[in-house]
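Sample 1 of the test manifest.
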Amino acid sequence: MCGIVGLFLKDSSLEPDLGRMLSEMLVTMTDRGPDSAGIAIYGQNSEKPYKITLQSSQPDMDFDRLASLVESELGQTPQVLRKDSHAVFGFDQDCLDPLRSLVQAEFPCVTIMSRGESIEIFKEVGLPEKVAQRFDVAQMSGTHGIGHTRMATESAVTTNGAHPFSTGSDQCLVHNGSLSNHNNLRRVLKKQGIEFETENDSEVAAAYLTWQMQNGANLGEALEAGLDDLDGFYTFVVGTKDGFGVLRDPIACKPAVLAETDQYVAFGSEYRALVNLPGIESAKVWEPEPATVYFWER
Amino acid sequence: MQTIDLNAQNLRELNATLQAQASADTPEASWEVLNPKGSHALAVGLDAPIDVTVLGSTGYYCAGMNKQANITVKGSAGPGVAENMMSGTVVIEGDASQYAGATGHGGLLVIKGNASSRCGISMKGIDIVVHGNIGHMSAFMAQKGNLVVLGDAGDALGDSLYEARLFVRGEVKSLGADCEEKEMRPEHLELLADLLERAGADAKPEEFRRYGSARTLYNFDIDNASAY
């Protein structure tokens, strides 16, 4: 199964409530997947213009020590916002590559979850309610966000196997379904220089879209190309810095409901996830068509 | 009229109360359900001639296995609405998600909006009237009963069809294997007129085309031996 929720705000007055609305939606979907949960929030919760979200498999990880190492080795002073097993490092400029090298050499327990100007990703093994509490998602503001609760099929139940997957700056993807050509596509993408963290099928879909967008496609064009190249069952919800997209495979077994008002676009694996949104009674609510790209950009 | 508010009572209590009408000496004739909020398996397994009106949208498997009851959803329904219905009437005022009326043996399912994919899959005697459009693979392996669509049908309508009758007023994107257009005879117009009237549909039987099984898959064809 797996449960997906997503919220793309058009009305900025709702932005302070994004984290609360999204985590409530995700908790409603708990019985679609109890293995792990994750959330991607696009917002300005840091004073610095560039953010990297890090996760440690060691609970006693000293992120401050990593920060001072970053200062001495990279000459950048990060603003560190620790949240449970994760920490958001704010920087004045993009320093992904040197940070990755530093982390790989000195802190093998640390994984880079996301990077970009706006995105932060928090994900862990456990039920959505617990995961949302650990990272205090309800307090987060933002412009759009995506959540996922996982029932694992294609790879192990681990933090890194949880969704969302982020394979490019300010990009993320969540997936309900299973891909059948992910091994071959991973090989093809590796030859193009794309790096992978897991054996998970959904990460391949995320990387595929990243690769398409690196080659000049916008989100809509990348999703359109995915219809030809991604084989299997899927409902995807995808985020970029300014965009929000939905795509279902041509068979469309995996459920999906979209709702749109003047204030927001909302996605739920089921209508249940949307029932407490403001104005849902008068929203346009529909089931996205198979093999049809839906995307919104601001 | 009895009212059950799902903000105050849980789903199991609702279903147990409605199911108990089957053995009640004097069943309560009319029920109203408030705040369904997309709940699963709402008003399932009923077996009494009662009216149930659900005010709002429902999740998976609403009105499943229905016998005798008349169930109206004043909203949209999730996947598998009226699955395996035996008799009675189910009316969805909004849209229905995938496999509406799947495997239904009898009764009437009316969808006033659109139905998505696999509507009437493996139907076994149910009548389904959709005022809007239906999605792909509808009436797949449908065995008996009637599927009436006032709008358009998606890809592969009636694939591997048995003896169900399909009537479509709009466009059919494509027919599935062994499904073909058939002659509309007077008895079909009569049947259609009755179904349209019972479903409150404003359409004339003459505007529809009929589709059915070409019956070429019923028996083994020696020319296909190499495919096995």
